[in-house]
Design goal:
This protein has about 290 residues and is an alpha/beta fold. Helix content is about 45%, strand content about 20%.
């Protein structure tokens, strides 16, 4: 199952998108709210049900004790988003000042999240918040950089507006460079489009030189519920946002699987590609002739 990190150049609904993907997944799923600027789900969707005694910040102390302590703390700080316990949340920071304490915890947390994906069979979605750059690199405190480097996919959430595309243009080149030099490769980067604005997926992809992996409809009523909580709007479970989120989750999984396959079987050398081309042509012409 993939580990997907969502980020944005500016507030583009990363948390709402992460929640929609987590809630709509056909498998068990986990949302790790890792925005260094602070989490919003406990005060929003959860309506204050979760106090500050639960969440991401407490993993920093456990990590200093060792991997076993971190694994135990991780399991004890998850919150169930549904009664069956198939949708889990690691609530985020309650104070942005806590972010500095997590700088050395991110790599170990990345390991835990990959275990949840690969061994526990969860779709793992990471809310990485707004990207912060310093001298062309990901900021070591204001961005959970190791969670981007280790992700199967890093999706920049954008809207189909000129303003959103203009902001994205500035962060894509350094992000691509960071993933090349420190992560798993520039091909981990893709876009998740919120269909708010005049630009369609193919136009966004062409404008930013980056593939749109999935798209979600702009749904203010459902987005407000996922952001602020309260009573879900009528037809919430059948809403276009959640329906398309299920499709988006499948598209993300397919993209991650293609990328994994490409890493296992890299493109053939040019000489070999030429041989394959000739064999394919012979097959198209009726097969290899003998004698």
């Amino acid at each position: 199952m993939p580990v997907t990190t969502l980020v944005s150049a500016k507030s583009c609904g990363v948390t709402t998108t992460a929640l929609a993907l987590t809630l709509a997944s056909k498998r068990s799923s986990l949302l790790a709210e890792c925005d260094p600027a602070g989490g919003t789900i406990r005060a929003g969707l959860l309506g204050g049900q979760v106090n500050a005694g639960v969440g991401l910040y407490h993993l920093a102390r456990a990590e200093r004790t060792g991997p076993e302590a971190l694994a135990h703390a991780f399991a004890s700080h998850l919150w169930h988003l549904d009664q069956a316990g198939h949708r889990k949340l690691l609530p985020g920071l309650t104070d942005p000042a806590q972010a500095a304490a997590l700088a050395r915890t991110w790599p170990a947390l990345a390991d835990v999240l990959h275990v949840m994906a690969q061994q526990a069979g969860h779709d793992v979605v990471i809310d990485g918040g707004r990207l912060a750059l310093e001298a062309g690199h990901l900021h070591p405190t204001l961005t959970p950089a190791p969670l981007l480097y280790r992700a199967d996919l890093v999706l920049l959430v954008v809207r189909g507006t000129e303003q959103s595309l203009a902001l994205a243009r500035h962060v894509i080149p350094p992000l691509r460079t960071e993933l090349t030099e420190r992560g798993s490769g520039a091909d981990a980067l893709g876009l998740l489009l919120i269909e708010d604005g005049t630009f369609r997926a193919h136009q966004v992809s062409a404008a930013l030189g980056t593939p749109v992996i999935a798209a979600l409809p702009y749904a203010p009523d459902v987005a407000h519920y996922l952001t602020a909580g309260g009573h879900p709007p009528r037809g919430y479970g059948r809403s276009p946002l959640l329906r398309y989120a299920r499709t988006a989750a499948e598209q993300i999984e397919a993209a991650a699987a293609r990328r994994q396959l490409q890493q296992q079987y890299p493109p053939a050398a040019p000489q070999l590609a030429g041989i394959l081309q000739r064999l394919n042509q012979q097959h198209a012409d009726g097969g290899v002739k003998h004698g």
